[in-house]
Amino acid sequence: MRRHAELRSLVQRALKSTQKGKNVGSYAEYIADGVKGELGAGWSTPPITFWHAGSLAALSDELVAGTGLRTLTITPGTSIVAIDGETQTAAWHALYDDPESFGLTYAQLATVRIPFELYVELSVADARQIFYDRNVQGVVVAKNLAMSMDQRDFATRLAHRVADAVKVEIDDRIVSFASWSTRASARWERPTPK
Q: Is the whole model's pTM more than 0.70, yes or no?
């Protein structure tokens, strides 16, 4: 366990007693709600990025030709570290540790397929670079844009309904404010007054 903690600390930030760690419970609740079907089709989790410093004990032939699907065997006692998606990994552990507290059963959890990437035989430096690339190179989405896409939020749904209901006159045509503002923000220029 100590060796795993030491290896993890080389490519990952602290989880316990951090904002990242505090998010584990709410992430587990989100996943549980999705698994129970309470979120409809509009929920997902990104693939988790794992790193295994050693080599695989075994790798099968493709299970279905042309798909790349294979089984793999990892030597017992070796470490696999989540380079990206550690909060999600911790949330899945919370769900499996006590599914009943999230309103789930082990049978429900057994049907879930968790997407992941596994990097094998990379050096610590390469694993650290992947951590950097995933956490720094990406552009953070502005909170107001992200919030405007939250279809479970009452205020967002209300704003979209109002924008659809309000009509504006453009070039002697009546259009919804939503369609006008979408075109205006994408490419459309307002006509100059005559």
A: no
Q: What angle do CA 79, 84, 85 make, to 5 degrees?
A: 95
pLDDT digits (tens, 9 = 90+) for 72-124: 888 887 788 888 888 898 899 999 999 999 999 999 999 998 989 988 888 88
Tens-digit pLDDT profile for residues 50-80: 888 878 888 889 888 998 888 888 888 778 8
Phi then psi dihedrals of residue 119, to 5 deg:
-95, 130
Q: 3-state class of 12 per DSSP?
A: coil
d(CA 30, CA 105): 15
Residue 121 region by backbone torsions, left for phi larger than 0, else alpha for psi between -120 and 50, else beta: left
CA 29 from chain centre, in angstroms, equals: 14
Secondary-structure percent of the chain, ordered helix, strand, coil, rounded to 5 = 45, 15, 40
Among 50, 48, 54, 49, which residue's Cα sits nearest to residue 123?
54
Specify the length of the chain in residues: 194
Q: What's the half-sphere exposure (Cβ side, CA atoms, 13 Å) at 18?
A: 9
